[in-house]
């Protein structure tokens, strides 16, 4: 009984923002008479928010490493502008232009990394300077005008869809197949992980809950692919985005480098004294943010079919808000890629839903501001209330706050007994 | 007015699980310079915090009588209003403000909130003259040497009409001239009727200026020596400071000592920013395979600085001298290189430098040796759990699983996690800086066992500790360190607390 409670508590915590996102979707679905989850609207939701979600991935890594990047909007605009100029004024093939621009973006990120990691200037200052610098350079490059008439291949990055194959079923076949494969892969991976964990004799989620969890996840993925397949199929930016989520989740969770980012953010001095090259970590994190900002800039330019001097305005604020809504901690060391994506989707759904309901843009801004504050306040309050177990994001408040009475009792009991049997492993 | 200016009667102060002060009595005569001596952790600072209201009335038992009446300070401001000013070892000046601004910080000469700077500067010059500080009051404090900063602190105290001045290790960071000037100043203030309490490890200075000396040990008053009554010399003070039984039990241990493993020769290290100030001076030391070597020194002697400078130059600015491992000269320019060469350093600051409190047990244990778990691109997380579980069992880390956050563990178990972390890097030399600080007795005993087990495997262990009985019980050899220099090397059988303390308080400059 107690065990079940622990698991539920841990999981509600872990999936708190997911539940909030689902609640938002249901709310808007009801208030907009079903427009919210219409295939075409879901498709739009992905395409319109892709650039913020791409930025949120990089931003959460920067925030975990206890920095910030205010320049991403300006860098996105600048890189997009350079791409447009290369393609229209210098007749560079679009794929080559993309490669050049990504290298340029990584170089801009490396520039930030140099000042932050090796000179020791706070990232806030360095990227504030770049925010002004690259907004200015964007105007210089574009000579203050919008540059359009981009090649179709490039525009497809922002607004294209996967090609269709096979018979005409009324649905987008490739998308359906990809959705089914993804759902199957996730379930297979989770089953294998469960077996491995059991092999070491550690506790796992009870079987009914495990099945329920997998059924839910698989169901959501299949439903989502069904929605997309009913419209125009999976957008190309969607493919890019899913690839990035998988790659960066892997990097942050499974690699030595990911561990080092969390270590540097959690306690930079302890990381240094454990032999972590903290400067290198800071440098790479900032460089990566530059790269992703450039990619977001290309995607935006492609979707808008033109480079615009005002493109990317306030992107940095949306990306930062996404990371914090998704559970990142201002003090560093806490945050996940998936969390930032969910945070970004919460913002995107709010935007989209309120637009559908006819809420004016000024009120949308105000409401989004309050949502950010409420999300973080809820998180802080929740951590204070229940301070046990949980994932990486769960332990931030615990470090400073005293542990809850029941946990102290548990630990004291264990310390009294010479060696206790292994208890339940909190969900990570 | 006669009678003592200050009487603290039966002061008892408890922290959760720790009795910091137990029935402490302190009587300070009017116009005296009264020294308080004791080992690290004897309760000197706690007693001064009770006096100055940092620990407010009600949080301790006993009475404080100041100038003939009972006082019940709720905070520092109230004690200052009565004329008790404390100057901490870590100076509380604001570097970016001027001397005058610092002197009047929190005590501004203001009329309706507006500061009259002309009046303030005029008064600052007066106060500075009283402490013999000839500087422009507009000079920023950061541009002053540490000795002059100390004088600014005293001028600030005088500005508050101080009647009882408390100085915590006032000369710890000062050079000879500045120290001498400060001691003269204290004598001068005494002539003007200001009573001082001085906490110091430098027994020769105490001998020079103190009128009375109170010795604390383990949170109790041991004795008060009156200089007027009979001559007090350093040996007499040392006897009072250490006179205690070896109450800790140590596991049986037969050392099997091999060849020289770590050799540090002529090692000098400067302060990280002030390269002209040597913190470690020409240190020579060796650690052999299977040997447990102690470093005994008082706070500020440079113990941690020495250890960290060896550990990949993680402390210091300029380095001289050589390091040899198994006879081969090594250049360890980073922590990474030091770990790679087989050196581990367990920090005295467990929460600041040892652990990421957001981590769980298993990620903490593997954080310094993550390379060993690398499998292709990924960290082998299954293997990680196996490793962590092994340490949890071997070192008896008391937690329900290795997924528990280290922030939730007791000090003893946190320390075992940090020890596991360093053992996982498979080092040859382990430098353990205060390995049992803030740990209960049971866990201490276990950690002694672990340390001896490491020595038995042929590893060299260098232990830094403020607790002399711990060093005496554990070590095969002990170096004493004072003001960044090795003052003596003693082998097992030669060391007693008195001998160690004598060399730890040795005046290096006269030697």
TrEMBL record, chain A:
It is found in: Cell membrane. Keywords: Cell inner membrane, Cell membrane, Membrane, Sugar transport, Transmembrane, Transmembrane helix, Transport. GO terms for molecular function: transmembrane transporter activity. The chain crosses the membrane at residues 12-30, 42-63, 70-88, 94-114, 121-142, 170-189, 210-228, 234-251, 281-299, 319-350. It is a multi-pass membrane protein. Residues 387-428 are annotated as: Disordered. It comes from the Bacteria. Pfam families: BPD_transp_2 (PF02653). This is Xylose transport system permease protein XylH.
From TrEMBL, chain B:
The keyword NAD does not apply. SMART domains: AAA (SM00382). CDD domains: ABC_Carb_Monos_I, ABC_Carb_Monos_II. Coiled coil: none annotated. Keywords: ATP-binding, Cell membrane, Membrane, Nucleotide-binding, Repeat, Sugar transport, Translocase, Transport. GO terms for molecular function: ATP binding; ATP hydrolysis activity. Residues 6-243, 262-508 form the ABC transporter domain. Its main location: membrane. It comes from the Bacteria. PROSITE patterns: ABC_TRANSPORTER_1, ABC_TRANSPORTER_2. It is a peripheral membrane protein. SUPFAM superfamilies: P-loop containing nucleoside triphosphate hydrolases (SSF52540). It holds the Pfam family ABC_tran. GO terms for cellular component: plasma membrane. It is found in: Cell membrane. PANTHER family: CARBOHYDRATE TRANSPORT ATP-BINDING PROTEIN MG119-RELATED, XYLOSE IMPORT ATP-BINDING PROTEIN XYLG. This is ATP-binding cassette domain-containing protein.
């Amino acid at each position: 009984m107690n065990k079940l409670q622990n698991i539920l508590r841990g999981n509600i915590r872990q999936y708190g923002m997911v539940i909030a996102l689902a609640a938002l979707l249901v709310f808007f679905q009801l208030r907009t008479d079903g427009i919210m989850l219409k295939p075409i609207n879901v498709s739009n939701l992905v395409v319109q928010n892709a650039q913020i979600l791409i930025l949120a991935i990089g931003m959460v890594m920067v925030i975990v490493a206890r920095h910030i990047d205010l320049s991403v909007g300006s860098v996105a605009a600048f890189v997009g502008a350079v791409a447009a100029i290369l393609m229209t004024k210098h007749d560079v093939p679009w794929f080559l232009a993309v490669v050049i621009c990504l290298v340029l973006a990584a170089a801009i990120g490396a520039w930030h990394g140099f000042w932050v990691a090796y000179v020791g200037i706070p990232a806030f200052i360095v990227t504030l300077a770049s925010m002004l610098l690259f907004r200015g350079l964007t105007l210089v490059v574009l000579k203050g005008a919008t540059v359009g008439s981009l090649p179709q291949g490039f525009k497809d990055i922002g607004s294209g869809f996967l090609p269709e194959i096979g018979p005409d079923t009324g649905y987008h076949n490739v998308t359906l197949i990809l959705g089914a494969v993804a759902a199957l892969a996730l379930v297979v991976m989770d089953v294998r992980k469960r077996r491995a964990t059991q092999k070491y004799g550690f506790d796992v989620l009870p079987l009914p809950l495990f099945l329920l969890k997998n059924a839910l996840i698989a169901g959501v993925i299949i439903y989502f692919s069904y929605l997309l397949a009913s419209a125009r199929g999976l957008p190309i930016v969607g493919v890019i985005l899913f690839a990035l989520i998988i790659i960066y989740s892997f990097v942050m969770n499974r690699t030595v480098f990911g561990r080092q980012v969390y270590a540097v953010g959690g306690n930079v001095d302890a990381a240094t004294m454990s032999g972590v090259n903290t400067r290198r970590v800071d440098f790479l994190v900032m460089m990566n943010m530059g790269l992703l900002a450039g990619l977001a800039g290309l995607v935006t330019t492609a979707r808008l079919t033109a480079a615009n001097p005002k493109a990317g305005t306030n992107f940095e604020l949306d990306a930062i808000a996404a990371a914090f809504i998704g559970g990142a901690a201002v003090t560093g060391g806490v945050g996940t890629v998936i969390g930032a994506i969910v945070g970004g989707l919460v913002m995107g759904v709010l935007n989209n839903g309120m637009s559908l309901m006819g809420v004016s843009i000024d009120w949308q801004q105000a409401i989004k501001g309050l949502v950010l504050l409420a999300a973080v306040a809820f998180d802080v309050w929740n951590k204070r209330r229940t301070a046990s177990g949980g994932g990486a994001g769960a332990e931030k408040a615990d470090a400073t706050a005293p542990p809850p009475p029941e946990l102290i009792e548990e630990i004291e009991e264990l310390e009294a007994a010479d060696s206790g049997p292994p208890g339940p492993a909190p969900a990570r | 007015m006669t009678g003592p200016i200050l009487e603290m009667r039966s002061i008892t102060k408890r922290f959760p699980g720790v009795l910091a002060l137990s029935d402490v009595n302190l009587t300070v005569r009017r116009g005296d310079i009264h020294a308080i001596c004791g080992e690290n952790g004897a309760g000197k600072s706690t007693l001064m915090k009770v006096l100055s209201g940092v620990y407010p009335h009600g949080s301790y038992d006993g009475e404080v009588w100041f100038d003939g009446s009972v006082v019940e300070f709720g905070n520092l401001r109230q004690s200052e209003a009565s004329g008790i000013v404390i100057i901490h070892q870590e100076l509380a000046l604001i570097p970016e403000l001027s001397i005058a601004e610092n002197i009047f910080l929190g005590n501004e000469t203001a009329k309706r909130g507006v500061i009259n700077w002309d009046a303030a500067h005029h008064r600052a010059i007066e106060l500075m003259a009283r402490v013999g500080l000839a500087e422009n009051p507009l000079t920023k404090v950061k541009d002053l040497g540490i000795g002059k900063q100390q004088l600014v602190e005293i001028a600030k105290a005088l500005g508050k009409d101080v009647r009882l001045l408390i100085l915590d290790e006032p000369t710890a960071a000062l050079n000879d001239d500045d120290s001498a000037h400060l001691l003269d100043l204290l004598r001068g203030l005494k002539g003007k009727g200001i009573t001082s309490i001085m906490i110091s490890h430098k027994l020769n200075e105490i001998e020079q200026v103190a009128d009375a000396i109170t010795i604390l040990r383990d949170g109790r008053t041991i004795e008060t020596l009156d200089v007027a009554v009979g001559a007090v010399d350093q040996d007499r003070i040392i006897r009072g400071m250490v006179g205690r039984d070896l109450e800790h039990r140590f596991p049986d241990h037969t050392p099997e000592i091999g060849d020289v493993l770590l050799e540090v020769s002529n090692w000098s290290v400067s302060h990280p920013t002030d390269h002209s100030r040597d913190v470690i001076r020409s240190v020579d030391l060796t650690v052999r395979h299977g040997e447990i070597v102690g470093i005994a020194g008082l706070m500020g002697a440079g113990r941690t600085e020495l250890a960290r400078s060896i550990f990949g130059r993680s402390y210091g600015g300029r380095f001289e001298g050589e390091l040899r491992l198994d006879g081969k000269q090594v250049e360890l320019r980073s922590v990474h290189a030091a770990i790679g060469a087989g050196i581990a350093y367990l920090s005295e600051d467990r929460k600041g430098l040892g652990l990421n409190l957001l981590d769980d047990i298993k990620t903490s244990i593997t954080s310094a040796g993550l390379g060993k778990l690398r499998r292709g691109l990924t960290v082998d997380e299954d293997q990680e759990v196996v490793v962590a579980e092994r340490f949890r069992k071997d070192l008896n880390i008391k937690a329900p699983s290795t997924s528990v956050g280290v922030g939730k563990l007791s000090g003893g178990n946190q320390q075992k996690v940090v020890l596991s972390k360093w053992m996982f890097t498979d080092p040859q030399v382990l430098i353990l800086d205060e390995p049992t600080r803030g740990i209960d007795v049971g866990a201490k005993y276990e950690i002694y066992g672990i340390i001896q087990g490491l020595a038995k495997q042929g590893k060299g262990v260098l232990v830094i500790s403020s607790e002399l009985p711990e060093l005496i019980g554990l070590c095969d050899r002990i170096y004493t360190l004072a003001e960044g220099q090795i003052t003596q090397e003693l082998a097992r059988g030669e060391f007693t607390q008195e001998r160690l303390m004598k060399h730890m308080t040795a005046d290096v400059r006269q030697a």
